Amino acid sequence: MTRVITVASGKGGVGKTTITANLGVALATYGEETIVLDADVAMANLELILGMEGKSVTLHDVLSGAASIEDAIYEGPGGVKVVPAGISLEGLRKVKMERLESALEILVENTDILLIDAPAGLEKDALAAIAAAQEMILVTTPEVPSISDALKTKIIANKLGVEIIGVVINREQHDKTFLTITEIETILEVPVIAVIPDDPEVSRAAAFGEPLIIKNPKSPTSNAIMQLGADLIGEEYQPIEPDKKGVISKLVEGLLGRR
Amino acid sequence: MELPITRPSTMCYADELKFPDLLNDLSSKKHNGFIRITAGSEEGFILFKEGKEIAASYIRYSRVDAIEKIKSAMEDRTTLIEVFDVRSNQIDFFMEMNKPYIIGSDAYDLIDKFKKPEEKELKPKAVPKPKPVSDALKENNSKPKAEKVENEVVSKPQENIVPSPNNSSNESKSLTETEAVKQTVNQIENEKTVKEEVPEIKKTETIKESVAENESVIEKVADNESVNKTIPKSDTEIDTVEPEVEEPESEVSNEKPSQDISNSPESTEKDTELLSQEDSPKPSMDRSELMKKYGIKDIQEEDVTNILESYKGGSVSDEDVEKIELTLMNKIKKSTLSIPKIRGAEIMVFLDNAERLTGKVNIIIESESQGFLSRIMGDSNKANLERQIIEISQIEIRKSFRKYPEIVDDFNINVEIS
């Protein structure tokens, strides 16, 4: 049976889309038939992170009734399938979120996991994305506004009967000014399932339009997301240790022709 | 006082900490920062510079009066105490900002009084244990009874120092402390074995002292237990009330008993270290307190319902379509009839909600009989009227869909004038 998991946050800009994109690729690398759907039709940028912008048919077209969902599925990096939302605002006015439900029915037919990148906030489009799923991953940063919004999202999701798998704390900085994992768990009353460190590599990977877990699989963020993916499907994951060799030793090895 | 409220390094309730202990701890740590005391709606601050109280406020009170009030407020167990750290170079700035609250040098004698523990704290509690010791020795000075007492004395720290695999590195501290107790006991035992001719009353005093010392240690443990919040209270109760319990392994399985046993009368510094080390809040912390601390609120049931209502009602259902048709019909008719030359108007609005909301508006107008001049003008007047009616209709559509005025482009308006 297909698992439909929505990745939501409440607050915008907490790294939800980045986590969804990378988690989708991670699940695909474990051999799971995974589709990542960008339900953030107003602020779509999943395709930018995955380097898939400019696709002719998008979720915009599907939700405005101009195309079928099958035409909006594209092969993404690492074997993940992607339904981009379409960055253009042109079709936004015609979008009807009610059509999302019927589109999802088709999507889940031949899929193991459908990941939905929900829009921020609790507007109609965000609620539609949450309500469409059976399970939800809450993404938050360890800051008060982010956690406050995550709490609202969690309450709404509970009301909609969506099971919350856990909280992913993004951009953890080991800074006293932020909330601790225990505090976040206590406030949200949901277990923390992954802690993703603040990592400049994420921005670099996004700039290259490449998922981080492909561009830099040794980074702590990649390891954390791969671990999260493994935990979701009950797989074992052995973290990839970063290369400990220094630049000079690499250079020397290169000069000596050992590489 | 004007002070920057960031994340407190320590947070606890008044029943977990004694005010003099707190002041002494911060003093010994040469603390730079401030404490905030919240008792109901009342709030107080004490600013510290290298452990010295330099400014204080409590509601409208300032300086020493404020400290006195804070001390009184600490008697309420629900008073919340938060310790905030600031950089030493910031203190002068805060002093400058809070000049009215700066404590004069003449007031420090009074403050020192606050720092002294209450007398009842200094006195070892009159627990029944020492009594049998003296009584036993007074009644008959037989050795077996004294041994029994010694065993009782020894048994208390032993319960806590039995090493367990879970014990943390802080265990060493407790070991040194309990070793001291052991040494005292060994000393007494040696005295017995060598059979020195020491007056037995002196021996009793030594034992009394050691018992009293251990009692104070245990009392300290009990006090600090609530601060560290790691040992179940029942354990401590067992330690103090039933010292003869001889199955320590299970009780010492917690990580922190060994830390707590290290609290001898001179080990308050260690207490504060433990307090300050607790950067991360305790796992058992109350959710409502956390929510209050960070100003986070649960959303109310009513708000949830409203949010979900917006989800249900945001789209145009078929029932809505009929209502919109009727509303538009009435609005366009009313506006059209306001044109002077029109006698009557029939408006028909048909909406299509299949893909997106589109519509067709048919307007049939009966105009007044035209005069001679108008007949000469002919079609131009008719075209003007038609254009006027279309414009009025478009305005009404836009007004009906204020959020999406562009929808008017999806409406086809036909006008027939007879």
- Terminal CA distance of chain A: 46 Å
Q: Any idea what the radius of gyration of chain A is?
A: 19 Å
The CATH top-level class label of chain A:
Alpha Beta
The percentage of residues in β strands of chain B lies in: 5-15%
From the 3D structure, determine the CATH topology of chain A: Rossmann fold
Number of helices, counting only DSSP H or I runs of 4 residues or more of chain B = 18
Q: How many strand elements of chain A?
A: 8
Which strand-content bin applies to the residues of chain A?
A: 15-25%
**Lateral strand order in the biggest sheet of chain B:** 1-6-2-3-4-5
In the predicted model, the low-confidence regions of chain A spanning at least 5 consecutive residues are none
Describe the structure.
The complex is a heterodimer of chains A (259) and B (418). Helices cover 39% and strands 17% of the residues of chain A. By secondary structure, chain A is of the alpha/beta class. Chain A has a single domain (3-255), classed as Rossmann fold, CATH 3.40.50. In chain A, helix 1 packs across helix 10. The longest helix of chain A has 16 residues, at 144-159. Chain A is globular. With 418 residues, chain B is α+β, with helices and mostly antiparallel strands. Chain B folds into three domains: 10-119, no CATH class; 130-267, no CATH class; 314-417, GMP Synthetase, Chain A, domain 3 (2-Layer Sandwich). Helices cover 53% and strands 15% of the residues of chain B. Chain B has helices at residues 19-28, 63-73, 88-97, 108-115, 119-122, 130-139, 143-161, 171-194, 200-228, 233-241, 248-251, 257-261, 268-277, 287-294, 301-313, 318-337, 372-377, 379-400; strands at 10-13, 33-39, 42-49, 52-58, 61-62, 80-85, 342-352, 358-367, 411-417. In chain B, strand 7 and strand 8 (358-367) form a beta hairpin. In chain B, helix 1 packs across helix 13, helix 7 (143-161) packs parallel to helix 9 (200-228) and helix 16 (318-337) packs across helix 18. The longest helix of chain B is centred in the middle third of the chain and has 29 residues, at 200-228. Chain B is rod-shaped and about 110 Å long. The A-B interface holds A 64-66, 93-94, 96-98, 122-124, 127-128, 131, 144, 147-148, 151-152, 155-156, 159-160, 176-177, 179-180, 182-183, 186-187, 189 and B 6-7, 9, 279-283, 285, 287, 290-291, 294-299, 304, 307-308, 310-311, 314-315, 354-356, 404, 406.
